[in-house]
Amino acid sequence: MTTQPASPPGSFDHRIAVYDSDDAFLSAALPFLHEGLAAPAEPPPVAIAAPDKLDLLRDALGTDAKDVGFVPHTDWYTGSAANAVARGAGYLAAHAGPHGRIHLLMEPVWNGRAGRSARESAEWIRYEALANLLFAPLSTTALCAYDLRTAGPAVVAAARRAHPGTGVYEDPVRIAAELDAVPLPPPPYDAELLPEPDQDGAAVRTWAVGRGLPAADAELFATSVTEAAAHLGGPLTAPLLWGEAPACVCELRSPHRVDDPLAGFVPPPTPELEPGQGLWFARQVCAYVDVRDDGAGATVRLQYA
């Protein structure tokens, strides 16, 4: 078991603990939670983990358990990496102390969305890396818990690069660039090119319903496309569409580069999800939003599920 040392106070303290047994998990988690309990001007620490690990913590904490929050990780990590950003930002705004002060023990769901495929694992590493920038202004202390029995050594090795103080930490922008250097699969031969840009999303909505999406989901997907298009600005090529429900895909092409690894990850001032939020809206609604810059502009590919 390895546990990363604390970062200097006054900034986002992003730690990692790697373990391969329940005893090693407790050896990392208990000192962290006790640190949170002893921290001045902080609300109670919170453990977000698998239910069996929460039971271990309750038993080991004894009477201190009443002063710790417990959240099953399947209730916290309910969707994409961008959804995790929103959940974290919303929780800190509602429950953290001044300047975001709180101790959060966080275990991803490796037998669910985060680890269901290599692609989803890569997006999780992107989240871990960009968290260092997104939460930099806050004084939150997070311990990311990685169980080698479920996450696996390759994911853990990548995660170490996303956590300061590990000795292998990399610039988050560099990690994002590496992930974006992986080419997107080419569109299928039967992808449908709309005859012209879809200004209000009506054509995408009609297409999505025809591919099996329920009307409400088709509306969300179409709105995501128009929000992404608004972020890119004109002139855009006509949308390219393919797939069947629920994995409907739309690709947009713009002559303008995005040039921002945080595009669509920075929470808006208000927590409500509503049109006018550009790529943030698209990332919250879609399972995947891939952005690729090149010498001629940018490609944005949105997959609903």
Keywords:
2 domains; five-stranded antiparallel sheet; Heat Shock Protein 90; 305 residues; Rossmann fold; alpha/beta
How are the secondary structure elements laid out?
Layout: E1 2-3, E2 13-19, H1 22-38, E3 46-49, H2 51-61, E4 69-72, H3 73-76, H4 81-95, E5 103-106, H5 118-134, E6 141-147, H6 153-160, H7 172-180, E7 192-193, H8 202-210, H9 215-232, E8 240-242, E9 249-254, H10 279-285, E10 288-294, E11 297-303
Parallel strand pairs: 2-6, 3-4, 3-5, 5-6
Antiparallel strand pairs: 1-2, 7-8, 8-9, 9-11, 10-11
Question: Can you describe what's shown?
Answer:
The chain folds into two domains: 2-180, 3-Layer(aba) Sandwich (Rossmann fold), CATH 3.40.50; 192-303, Histidine kinase-like ATPase, C-terminal domain (Heat Shock Protein 90, 2-Layer Sandwich). It has ten helices and eleven strands. It is α/β, with parallel strands linked by helices. The chain has helices spanning 22-38, 51-61, 73-76, 81-95, 118-134, 153-160, 172-180, 202-210, 215-232, 279-285; strands at residues 2-3, 13-19, 46-49, 69-72, 103-106, 141-147, 192-193, 240-242, 249-254, 288-294, 297-303. A six-stranded mixed sheet has the order 1-2-6-5-3-4, sandwiched between helices. The radius of gyration is 21 Å and the shape is elongated. The protein is 38% helix and 17% strand.
